[in-house]
Amino acid sequence: MAGVAFDQVCKRYGKVSVIEGLNLEIKDHEFMVLVGPSGCGKSTALRMVAGLEEISDGTIVIGDRVVNELPPKDRDIAMVFQSYALYPHMTIRENLEFGLRIRKTPPAEMKRLVDDAAEMLGIDQLLDRKPKQLSGGQRQRVAVGRAIVRQPSVFLFDEPLSNLDAKLRVQMRAEISKLQHRLQTTCIYVTHDQVEAMTMGHRIAVMKDGKLQQCGTPLEVYEKPANLFVASFIGTPPMNFVRATLAEGGTRLAAATFSLPVPEAWRAAAAGKDGRGVIVGVRPENVVGPGGAPRGPVAGIPVTVEAVEPLGHEVIVHGKAGEDLVVAKLDPHRAPHLGETLDLVVELNTLHLFDSTTELRLGA
Ligand SMILES: Nc1ncnc2c1ncn2[C@@H]1O[C@H](COP(=O)(O)OP(=O)(O)OP(=O)(O)O)[C@@H](O)[C@H]1O
Ligand SMILES: [Mg+2]
Known about the structure:
It is a single chain. By secondary structure, the protein is of the alpha+beta class. Helix content is 25%, strand content 34%. It has a 6-stranded mixed beta sheet with strand order 6-7-8-3-9-10, sandwiched between helices. Strands 13-12-11-14-20 form a 5-stranded antiparallel beta sheet. Magnesium ion binds next to helix 1.
């Protein structure tokens, strides 16, 4: 077992910088998810750990070794890719054995490792088949099995579930989490799917444009997003943003068509800052009404209902406050009607405030 550390890691292709000064420590036994939009550098970061890409600057440490110059085979890692990359002409057992044969593992040991992994993944009945006789989900299990039998110090996953249908993805997500819990192997898992990140990671590292935006537990990132990007990336439907200005001695947030009291936690920071531009963030799930049971102080945002999307257990309501759109998740039994004007009730303590220029989270 081993931790992994990125220290000031940069990656450039010619003049183009794709990873900038990445500092990130993945602890021994930890499940770390790298998440961010397409092209933000997740795969590049992972491939540098694997040794499949050179590092332009900085160091990567696995366990207690700097691995910058170490070839992939000596890094004690195993990687699972989005494409299962199984050998089509070999049986499943032969696919699982392949890496072990190269390392000249004794046959009895090899059989034990393969049988154990196959049982763990529920593919023990499939060992004599060829990959094309397997479903996508089963193939992905074999790809995971191939990583397990090698008993590496670190698992690297690059979007391993993206080729599976939605239902299977949810199932495999839980299986990979369980597996990691059982094996306790350090994992770095790359995905662009924030739900996967939130549900699987002990901690998640949110990236954008080659830069780390925030690293923390799923709850930390959800409750205290470091900037506007993280706030908009984590959560579905995404957080609502309304431009406002501090007013009345820093006690009110004045938006275009309404105003809200400044939440208690921000009062000290906002005092006397009238005129300062802020962006108020409201999560759809923190809109508690009309008619809900709020915890703590609330305020109303007057809107006209533009769309109502019933989902069974909840209803997504799109309200327009002047030019500002406020989306709310509401109780389906209290759903408003299209065109209705009403006050969307928000819990003040759940509001988020960002600086309108730097886009960084303000204070609390
Ligand atoms: N060989 C290369 N030469 C030049 N630029 C590259 C090369 N490989 C990747 N890039 C660029 O590096 C950036 C990061 O790519 P990377 O594959 O790491 O993104 P990603 O976050 O994994 O995206 P995705 O979610 O689409 O897989 C992209 O802008 C990509 O165009
Ligand atoms: Mg990628």
